[in-house]
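Handout, section 4.2: multi-component inputs.
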Amino acid sequence: MKKINLKVNGVDYSVEIEEDVRLLDVLRNQLRLTGTKEGCGEGECGACTIIMDGVTVNSCMVMAFQAEGKEIITIEGMATKSGLHPIQRAFLEEGAVQCGFCIPGMVLSAKALLDKNLTPNREEIREAISGNLCRCTGYNKIVDAIDKASKYMGKEGDVNGI
Amino acid sequence: MDVNKTYKGVALQEVLTLLQQHENTSKVIAGGTDLIIQLRECKVTPQVLIDVSSLEEIKGIEIIENRVSIGAATTFTQLVNSPFLNNGLEGLKEAAKSVGSPQIRNIATVGGNICNASPAADIIPPLLVLDSELYISDINKSRTISLEKFLIDKGQVDLKTNELLCHIQFNNIKNNQGLGFSKLGLRKSLAIARISVAVWVEVEENTYKQVRIATGACSKLGVREREVEALLLGKPVEEKTMQLGAEALKTQLEKRLAGRKGMEYKREAIQGVFKEALTKATYLSKT
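Output:
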């Protein structure tokens, strides 16, 4: 057992972990942040995507002890009291969500992109979500949604940014 | 997974001491994108994991005189975005860009790609043609070894259990030199290379003064193609030379992969992949 300190969605946590668990396991099983999904468990699908220190990573490929001192954003950290994040709003409006399993990862990959580039072209959007597989939508509506979100965020500023 | 003790290293000396203490039971973890899968499949069974992903001393890219030094714990994203790599080295960036997915490039490291020594490792062919030297340390001493010698076999490298790969260094590229890279995968993202080729050239008076070629996924290791290099040396920059190289590579693959599944495909495909890499390298040497 080992104690690690990390910040998730703006909240400081001190968690007792088994040393052989992954960050994904800690997020889901200990912090009960089950919005982060486990798909393939080997870095192919991106369902477990989170943002760690400003960049997306597959949380199934990070050992929990490596996350000591890290700042993490999961899907639960996107919406605020004032409502959904513009990316989430755009996903709903564009019908970009079907079964929904890939969506938390998709939204976080979109956030990581838009935090760095508020005016991405469609090619850049596709590149940004190239590590997230979706078996339902065929991606077009997801790309439309991210494009729309970039316009919302350009207008409003990233009011929900953490 | 047998892991029951983990250390997150913050200083190089500390990590080297830990490696010495846990010499036979530990594994170094950096990005973890290969290791965590191997751990979960019980292909490796260390009891101790030593994380080097936060070791500032072995992160980042520096130019020291005319040498480029890449810290082993530098991520592929950092390599792609580095302002220190000039245009002639485009092939190195392109190889880094072709690794996995954004999520993987954000955490996977150059040193990890080398030490994991997959035959299809994307960054190995360009580093081979740059004649890269590896700087390796243990608690008592440091040594250097060429990347080519470091790679022993598939998944096997010349690194003792108490040693850490710290830096990768090579000569910076000159104006009349260029590095091209081309990869054939089944899709653009998350594709393991079926074939990759890196070509480094120095061009003078429209002639190849120096040529270095390395292939990935065409052997049990990333390898230098010295016979082909020798053929192109001193030849003029023209279509005929490119064809000569392509056919020589085809012959190499026929010999090397004889009797293996995929040989017939690879011997054809490598020609196109090689031509693309050579064209890019040649172009970069002239701009």
